[in-house]
Amino acid sequence: MRWRRCGEDAALLDCESLEQMRAAHAIVSAARPEGVVDLVPGARSLLVIGGVAAAKTLLDDADLRHPPAGEPREVTLDVRYDGEDLTLVAEDAGLSTDAVVELHTEAVYTVAFTGFAPGFGYLTGLPERLRQPRLASPRTRVPAGSVGLAGEFTGVYPRESPGGWRLLGRTSATLFDPHADPPALFAPGDRVRFRAVR
Q1: Entry pTM
Q2: Residue 74 burial by Cβ neighbours in a 10 Å radius (0-12, 13-18, 19+)
Q3: Secretion signal: which residues (predicted)?
């Protein structure tokens, strides 16, 4: 791990893996050292805003191989598995479309971090057989609520936007509402399940 200063009151912790970042985020979130104002997790990094010295001291002695145990919040989303790329995903995985849906709905996912767009959560826990690259040519318009996958992640587009993830289906759940408290449905550490509906 390596710390890099970011302005006067923040520092970026470069981690060796997603698991290490999740552990560091969970430890600092639970302890909330004095002066820490905010934490911004990334795929292999954690931005600590305020209280950097206290966070460093806390993490110097921590076991970052596994996130600490706790009771995460759980979210279940109903999904219609009729996405544009469902057949492509099935063909590349050597599975039937029904088997793809079964694998995707049996897994329990964890929100590793958020980004790309407000409310977009990068969910880990995607079964190995479903891990596939992004599309060679991204779409200019992906409908809000589209459930997709790319690499080791699955996720849900919170609003219409361009995107290159392979689309499995769609949910009617609201992922981001600026008038809600909190505005985003997903937060790092949350557990997510998908449930197939017709």
Answers
A1: 0.80
A2: exposed
A3: none
